[in-house]
Design goal:
- The chain is α+β, with helices and mostly antiparallel strands.
- It has one domain: 3-Layer(aba) Sandwich (Chorismate lyase), CATH 3.40.1410.
- Helices cover 24% and strands 29% of the residues.
- It has six helices and six strands, in the order ααβαββααβαββ.
- A six-stranded antiparallel β-sheet has the order 1-2-3-6-5-4.
- Helix 1 packs antiparallel against helix 2.
- It starts with a helix and ends in an 8-residue tail after the last strand.
Length: 184
């Protein structure tokens, strides 16, 4: 299921839309609506590398949001988002500063597309080198118990571009085990 979600996000133009579909398909919450719980107490300035990726000068303002994307009471991901306010409409900037609307929904009219920079697997249910272990070790391991799943599963780093291929945002999204918390 982790790889299925990871692949769906990688193949999508919008992580928000993918999470909303995942939430609906797996009945995580009804209605399946993604909200961005904004952490107003956090402000992480853009680094020189962020500015380079966003193709902005050292003096151009870069906005920042730290959000927890939730469906119902389930936080599905935590995201850091550096964005270029001058490349968005005034209404988009107002929504980003004052509402729980996810970035992907706010900029939807820009026909934004994602370019993944990196994917970090933070946990795997299989032990390292599981495929190279002797079969007898696997068979003699005894009864299986419930597998403890950590809070964070994988992380994506991506750049979002508008329809004219101008970078509008850099995102770092960390997906949680709550993505697996659905009725069996």
């Amino acid at each position: 299921m982790i790889e299925q979600l990871n692949g769906a996000i990688l193949a999508s133009h919008s992580a928000t839309a993918t999470l909303e579909s995942w939430c609906a398909d797996h009945r995580i919450a009804v209605p399946a609506r993604i909200t961005a719980n904004l952490d107003r107490g956090t402000n992480t300035p853009a680094t020189p590398a962020d500015r380079l990726a966003l193709q902005v000068s050292p003096n151009e303002p870069v906005g920042y949001r730290h959000v927890r994307l939730a469906c119902g009471g389930h936080v599905l991901s935590e995201a850091d988002n550096w964005y270029v306010p001058s490349r968005l409409t005034p209404e988009m900037n107002r929504q980003l500063e004052n509402t729980d609307i996810p970035f992907g929904k706010v900029v939807e009219s820009l026909r934004a597309v994602r370019q993944t920079l990196a994917v970090d697997r933070l946990w795997s249910p299989l032990p390292e080198n599981w495929d190279r272990r002797a079969r007898r070790n696997v068979e003699s391991s005894g009864p299986t118990s419930r597998l403890p799943i950590p809070a964070y599963l994988f992380r994506h780093r991506a750049i979002l571009f508008d329809a004219s291929r101008r970078p509008i945002a850099k995102v770092v999204e960390t997906y949680t085990s709550e993505t697996l918390n659905y009725p069996r």
